Amino acid sequence: MPNEALGLIEVKGFLGAVVAADTCLKAANVELIQCEVIKGGLTTVELTGDVGAVNAAIEAGKAATESLGCLVSSHVIARMSEETKSLFVPTEQEKDEVIQEIREVATITDSTEQKLREMKVIDLRKLAYTLDNVPIPKSKIKYANKEKLVHALKDIYGRSEN
Fold this sequence. Notes:
Blueprint: E1 4-12, H1 13-27, E2 30-37, E3 42-50, H2 51-68, E4 71-77, H3 82-88, H4 92-104, H5 110-118, H6 121-130, H7 138-141, H8 146-161
Antiparallel strand pairs: 1-3, 1-4, 2-3
Helix pairs in contact: 1-2, 5-8, 6-8
């Protein structure tokens, strides 16, 4: 996307992060990259999408978190450079490599679970969309948290072994 933007909202506490992410995702057509936990109870909610959508989402997230008193700061980077993008958004090749690596694993081992847990939620969701027999309905995958996605993907690989 040529007009891809990066939106960041930094909040205090888990509640603020949940409210910020939920509000932003409901306000505009944006994609949640991750919620990065920083020391001292700070969390940064990272979003990407079209410049206008990210601006709208960040404004909505700011309003919601200000009313809770947990907003620390926010920022939108419009048309981010490729170098900046690489810090936050994995390339399609990186995503494909991770997905291929996981698909090649024949059995559920601790290392496989560890690899799944190291993946970003967005990559786990994309993997879940590509697989058949995911125990999460396709319409619910985009709302699934990391724990639920890891558990579902472990179930799939466990069944393929039997």
